[in-house]
Design a protein that fits this description.
2 domains; about 375 residues; globular; disordered N terminus; Immunoglobulin-like; single chain; five-stranded antiparallel sheet; C8orf32 fold; four-stranded antiparallel sheet
Length: about 375
């Protein structure tokens, strides 16, 4: 698909992007009401230790009293130093560990606890006006290195939202277009890169959550709607039977997932996850489901305005400079990171790195 085709598709699909007229099916209808407590254990080692070694492990420290409450982290390590550090712009928390040169078995194990619950916003009943501070509004409207808000992003956003009568209309049109125009690409490494302009310029609208939800965020910001990615991890199976939207067991090493939010004055922060709709389409049995399949209709309806509380939130950060490292900035921080002799290890190769993450629900 060419750049011109992308823009034409945007104009055409924007008319079709409204939600299905059917209500959210009870089979997939996340609702708040039951807080769940979890313990997350992240264990990091270095497969081939040599020279100067350090690591940065994201901590579940995002906080929202409505749906996510971090309860702190503790750790055991043979590192020379270990301290919690924060990104100065987004306040993302990570544990920074530095091992002594010559340490032949570097290890750190972190235990984090948190409480989470499902959330849902009734989009038929405004509760506003809600406001953001000037600083928050500027932060969540700004461009990042991989999410510009001008050029083709602005042009696409304008075409998609032309004729919208409200901010809610704009957000729904963008969400609906992503559901219909993109696809989940199983060949994408990890969760993707989130290079929004490249996706639109190339016409390749395939990817995973860090791509598709970043596209939602970029198009929303370009439309004047504060929006953000929230980077996190699935920690439990879906209570609604969706295999693609939960974990299989307590091992969650490769269960990273980012979600998105858009700020609407009538409702506050509204959850959105068009990437998971595309995941349902690709992965729910028997696979490659049509948009009209009941599972897809349910997910599409639910995942603008609600999401299931089987997931933790690390942070909303972009363009992360790892403290003490000379490596280029990271687009986001959702995976453990480590550096050996000044070279970052491949965070997507957990077995060679190595790290393992487990999650278990606590009976509290």
């Amino acid at each position: 698909m060419s750049r011109r085709d992308v823009l034409k598709a945007g104009a055409a699909i924007s008319v079709l992007a409204a939600f299905p007229s059917v209500p959210v099916h009870a089979a997939f209808a996340p609702r708040p009401g039951t807080w769940r407590n979890f313990e997350l254990v992240t264990r990091v080692t270095i497969a081939e230790p040599t020279g100067f070694m350090q690591g940065w492990i994201p901590l579940p420290a995002f906080s929202d009293p409505i749906w996510f409450k971090p309860a702190g982290s503790t750790w055991e390590t043979n590192a020379k130093t270990a301290e919690i550090v924060r990104d100065p712009k987004y306040d993302a928390e990570m544990l920074h560990v530095v091992w002594a040169e010559g340490e032949n078995a570097p290890v750190v194990e972190i235990k984090s606890t948190f409480a989470t619950q499902s959330r849902a916003v009734d989009l038929t009943k405004p509760t506003g006006p809600h406001t953001l501070s000037d600083a928050e509004r500027a932060l969540y409207l700004a461009a990042t290195e991989l999410i510009p808000v001008d050029g083709i992003v602005k042009e696409t956003s304008d075409r998609l939202t032309a004729g919208a009568k409200s901010d809610l209309d704009k957000a729904q049109l963008i969400y609906g277009w992503i559901v219909e125009a993109t696809y989940r690409d199983p060949a994408t490494r990890g969760c993707g890169l989130g290079d929004v302009a490249s996706m639109l310029e190339s016409g390749n609208l395939g990817g995973k959550c860090a791509d598709l939800n970043a596209l939602f965020v970029g198009l929303a910001r370009a439309a004047g709607l504060p929006a953000r990615d929230i980077y996190g991890l699935r920690v439990a199976p879906s209570e609604f039977g969706y295999r693609s939207l939960g974990t299989k067991n307590e091992v969650v090493t490769k269960a990273q997932h980012c979600r998105a939010e858009v700020f609407l004055a009538d409702f506050g922060w509204v959850p959105a996850d068009p990437a998971d709709v595309r995941k349902v389409i690709l992965e729910e049995p028997p696979g490659n489901l049509p948009l009209t399949d009941d599972k897809v209709v349910q997910a599409r309806s639910a995942l603008f305005g609600s999401w299931e509380g089987n997931w933790l939130a690390y942070n909303t950060a972009h363009d992360i400079a790892l403290p003490g490292s000379q490596a280029p900035k990271l687009g986001f921080l959702m995976y453990p990171q480590a550096e050996v002799r000044g070279m970052l290890l491949d965070c997507l190769d957990a077995d060679t790195f190595t790290y393992a993450i487990t999650a278990r629900e606590l009976a509290i």
